[in-house]
Amino acid sequence: MPAFTAHAPAKIILFGEHAVVYGHPAIAVPVTSLQARAFIRADVRAPRGQVHLLAPAIQLDAYLEELAPHHPLRRVIELTAERVGASYLPACQITIQSAIPVASGLGSGAAVSVALSRAVAAYLGKSLSAEAVSEIAYEVEKIYHGTPSGIDNTVIALQRAIFFVRGKPIQPLHIQCPFTLVIADSGISSPTAATVADVRAAWQQNTAYYEALFDQIAAIVSEARAFIEKGENSRLGELMNRNQSLLQQLGVSCAELDYLIDVALRAGAAGAKLSGGGRGGNLIALVDPSTSTQVAQSLKEAGAGGVIITTVR
Ligand code: MEV
After folding, report:
1. Contact 124, 116 (CB under 8 A)
2. Ligand 1 centre and the CA of 151: distance in Å?
3. CA-to-CA distance for 25 and 19, rounded, in angstroms?
4. What pLDDT sits at residue 1?
5. What is the CATH number of the domain that holds 21?
6. Which atom of ligand 1 lies closest to the CA of 166?
7. Is residue 8 within 8 Å of 35, Cβ to Cβ?
8. Whose CA is nearest to atom 8 of ligand 1?
9. Helix/strand/coil percent split, the chain, to 5
10. Which of the residues 29, 79, 110, 178 could staple to 153 if both were Cys, CB 3.0 to 4.6 A apart?
11. Which tens digit of pLDDT belongs to each residue from 85-129?
12. Which tens digits make up the pLDDT trace of 239-287?
């Protein structure tokens, strides 16, 4: 029986989260050591068009038509079929697995959408461009997040570092010299939709104050881009610390993240910040390859979960 598999990576925001929702730039990179996977197997004995969906991580075992019309997985399948001009999906079983923790700032929702869209297109005998898959995932991000900037679906579909400005053509980012990060999970589940909505409410109350913070974040993102493109990675740590301070002022950090960031800095990280929506989820710490193990170990001892060391290239 024909079978099709597609993968998509996790992502981190290096600089510029939240401000990016308001049209400011941000920098994001894929994290290939964490992947979402969609596997489709044709079921020739099932009735025409019967699609059986299994996603063990969210205890989902259902037929497609049983899902609410706006269920994210249903929308991905339908939008992908529409995009490739198919009126229905031949009977099959779809299994979704993901090593990316949910509500942790690593783009789990967008990664599942991208992997599923690619697998569905392949099952229908088509291939979609990264841009087309990103657009489909963006439609579904709106269900998860309300007002997403589009950075998560873009970096995950492109699978490469990007300098991103909402509504502008995608700008791949050239990383002159690879650098090492420790990614660590605070263990606090924090849906991005909630922090994005809170920042919006605060911005509506006190627009000038928040715009000033966004402008400072935008300046950091531009500086970071220049350093990354010139290979001056040692300059990035201080920028991460400044970005984190502005994220605290936006109200999207929390005591646990602040504590773990402090642990990483004391253990020798050159800089550290939350990554993604904040108020939980993951932090990133810039490390020298020689201090990476020490920083990772200190974070684990301080209670962080899912600690990984990754090279950004
Ligand atoms: C989420 O990864 C990044 C945020 O800026 C939200 C968005 O850009 O859609 C918090």
Report:
1. no
2. 7
3. 7
4. 57
5. 3.30.230.10
6. 8
7. yes
8. 149
9. 45, 25, 30
10. 110
11. 999 999 999 999 999 999 999 999 999 999 999 999 999 999 999
12. 999 999 999 999 999 999 999 999 999 999 999 999 999 999 999 999 9
